[in-house]
Amino acid sequence: MTKAYLEITMYVSNANRPAAAGVFNKYKQPFLDTVKGATSKDLLIRDEDVQVLHGFASVEDANAYLETELFNNDVVKELSPLFDETPEIKIYLVA
Length: 95
Description:
- With 95 residues, this protein is an alpha+beta fold.
- It has a 4-stranded antiparallel beta sheet.
- The chain is built from 3 helices and 4 strands; from the N terminus they run βαββααβ.
- The chain is globular.
- It has one domain: Alpha-Beta Plaits (2-Layer Sandwich), CATH 3.30.70.
- Helix 1 packs antiparallel against helix 3.
- The longest helix is centred in the N-terminal third of the chain and has 18 residues.
């Protein structure tokens, strides 16, 4: 059951959005299979930004994911060259 969400808002130009979607698709299943407490991962697209909404069993699991090798050495490394601005990271508790 999802009890917390990690929302990462990324500012990616239209030209770089296919590459960003490719990174999302590449790491979605490894995220769900290996990250403690992971319950879901969705890509939300708007004209002004792209968001990845990660579901977790707890706020602690969401915070812990930000310290994992998967996040820092894989996802961030591949996405960073695509950013137009620094991403915004927020964690929400489901009430």
